[in-house]
Amino acid sequence: MRRSSAFASLAALAIVLVASAAHADATCISAYEQTQTLRKDGKLVAAKAQAAVCAQTSCPALLTKDCSKWLSELDALIPSVILDPRTAAGGLRADVRVKLDGVALAEKIDGKPLLLEPGAHTFVFEADGAAPVERTLALREGDKNKKITVTLAPPVEVRTEERPVPTGVWIFGGVSVVALTASAVLAATALGKKSDLDACKPRCAPDDVNAMTVRFTMADVALGAGVMAGAAALYLFFTRPTAEANAARTGRLGPIRAASPFATPLSGGAAVGFTTRF
Q: Residue 234's domain spans which residues?
């Protein structure tokens, strides 16, 4: 019974060892094949990881010999970079977050070389209180310890200048529209009255003639007021200052006050314009 039990134990151990060896061989063979495929595709870092698997002593000697050789060759070919973020004063800054091709690479800088696949890579450096910095670098096989130096400075404050439309533009513009409309209406009615009077020449009633003349005069006054108000609106619009300049704009004559239009009847006509105070 004891001999039978010992024999069974030895048989079970042999089965386990054979199964483990078969599993190890399968893993080694897969890593052996992947190393060659990845290297051919230019994925050297990934190929090195596979070569490290099949170079282990647990793998068949025939495989470990090639894998160890490839591991050494890949070490020489894989490019590496050293991240070198600096402050505005030129000092090394370690509290920097780095993204590689849009994926988080490091949460802080330790100064150690980083192994990367050959090709073009985009690095984004971020730090509290500083504007992000982006750098693109093309790495070739054999490039070693290429330093990427960036300066992380506080973001530059961009001040945009605004030119708000003054209230006077809307006031004068409204006055201009109303005055020009009134002028057109008065002129139209005056012309209609003149057409009626043409039929009664030269015996037209003096009151009718005076009414026509008054309408033409009022149309001229309204036209002048509309033109002047429109000119004032355009002047204020095109000469309006920026928001900052407007806040500090006083000049030698003091701050500019609101302007207002005027229309004054005169003997034989009228005067129109606008006034402002300083």
A: 167-276
Question: b vs e for 36-63, b when ≥16 Cβ sit within 10 Å of the residue's Cβ?
Answer: eebbeeebbebbbbbbbbbbeeebeeeb
- 52-100 confidence digits (pLDDT tens): 999 999 999 989 999 999 999 999 999 999 999 999 888 988 999 999 9
Angle between helices 61-77 and 44-54 (to 10 degrees): 150
Give the three-class secondary structure for 173. Answer: helix
- The answer to whether residue 240 sits within a structural domain is yes
pTM value is: 0.49
Q: Are strands 269-276 and 133-139 parallel, antiparallel or unpaired?
A: unpaired
Instruction: Supply 1's token pair.
Output: 């019974």
DSSP secondary structure letter of residue 92: B
- Whether residues 73 and 86 share a domain: the answer is no
pLDDT over threshold 50, residue 255: no
The verdict on whether omega for the bond into residue 202 sits within 30 degrees of 0, i.e. cis, is: yes
Q: Which two tokens stand for residue 48?
A: 């090195």
